[in-house]
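Two folds, back to back.
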Amino acid sequence: MTLPAADATESTLSAAPGGVRRHPSHPVALLASIVGLGALLTFINRDLPIVRNALLYAQIHHHLVEHGMRLWQVCGDPQLVFNKACGFPALAAPLIALFGMNVGLKWASCIGTALFVYACFVFFRRFNARFGLDEADLPLELLVCCLNPLVAYQFWSAYPDSLFYAGLIFSLVLLDRLVMDRDRSDLRLALGYLAVFLVSLIVKPGALVFFPLHAVYLWWYRGEVAHAFAERPRRIVLLAATFALALAFVGLATIGWNPLVNLQGNEGQYDGVVAYMRSVKQVAVFLALSFGVLLFLAPLIRVHAGDALWFVLIVIYAHIFMVYPGAPYNARYYVAILPLATMYVVRAFRELTWAALRRTALAMFLATNAIAVLAFNERTAFRGLTAYLPPSWFEEFTYTDCLRMGAHLTMQASLAAVNEQVPPGAKLYYVSAYYYGSGGEGVYQDAGLLRGNLEIQYAKDTSAVKEGAGDFYVFFSPPAPPHPRPGFEELTPRLFRANPGLLPKRSRKISSSEAADKAPGATMSQP
């Protein structure tokens, strides 16, 4: 990746206590380069089929279209949104209309991730001074925070997570401005803060994490809150009113009375048993994927009284998600804390007084993280990587599950096999032992990734497959392993052909009179 303003970046990275001259930097150009790289990855991967939860968002969009984009008729119904939020497919609607379902959702996540990168830029500018950092540190911060395979994948994932991350980062900036600033933008800041929270919650219910994080912030700066109330009571009253409205919005969603989001379907998501040590390992993998060789700076990281709040917020956020049952295979959950952690890493980098070590560390970080970005987000590089490493490292529902190039390629090959080998008009059982009920059914056919001249019937397992006249086909959709019945002819590892004449006959239930006739000693009736 060619980055602009390389001289400015190098001068920034070389700066350290001790009188080293620091030159002006050009962080906006670097920000544009990162977003440009993400857009390029989205473009080159536009043909790959969306996978996993992205299929649910595609189906939610279909439900929205069926209801004339009346969000209040869809978003509050857990059955129609699969216990997800409908904000992302609603926001993606213009892009879906322009590019189609498969590509439109990817461009929507690309825009969301671009907003996250910009949110990080705003966050660093707001809080750098509290870490002893300044404007010249912005290029390094953007690189450390965003040049990694996890953020790169969010651009083309067709997931809403990066919009949620952006909302969290923007909300912290707005909350800090409401408490710390003394300008006259009270109402504008309060409305912006409320809007960011509401949009984030409609995009992803995980935005509920805003409440504990913001409560800790207000308690930490309770002295400043009291001082602000004494100087500008209107601002604190507006902040309190904003909190009250947000709580009311969530309360209505909890009892099923909010037409824009229904949280009743999310009840019990934390009830399952969590292998907490697996979550700890997942966080370690996340840090390694994000910061790479810069983890050698860990002994130099210091938490000072003036910036301890951000360390506390990192711990609270991480713990809230680590006790969620899906945490052991969802490294993407922690992308939101990258900008907070980055400031500690960059400050530690500045503690290096040996210029040669700084240059070496920078070169190694840029090289290894750029390779990782390509290896997990460009198909040729990914195939080369997986050819030399154990396949178990890249399986789904493992520590690298959120880097899903393998899942996209597997699904693309599987759909291509169906399109090539199943004749027109044939009956195809699409078996998906997946979650969320009927989530994802019909998406690939509607998107044109499966031929429209197939008679497709969706099933959870092969028990739903019913023999009829003539051959029929059975496709086992990834990621679940195939489980064919005896008599199925394997065409590919996931596609099978079934001839009813070759299938084992199921035993027929007989009546009690038939059973008596066949009993030992029974005599046959004569005509």
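---
second:
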Amino acid sequence: QAHPDVVVMLDTHNQLLTQRNDRVEVRFAARFYDASLQYIGKAEGAVAKQLPSVWVHDKAAPEIAAQIEQQRDLQLTALKQFDASLKALVSAGLTAATN
């Protein structure tokens, strides 16, 4: 039977553009617990931005491709924030463990 040192609860949310929605929202969060399920800390990254909606039936391919790239860039920004937050959490944990 497995006995984990750390339990992680991962929460992700990606809301991309649709015909009825012009807001892109991206969130990544990880909550960490020790083997006794005591809260250790949280790493997170989030971005939200309103973008004009572009749809295939009335826009040229370059406009559609540019909008897809904007959404991808927002996802990447949120992931970079998450990564930085995770590194800070790990560094803080290592510092606390060595003191």
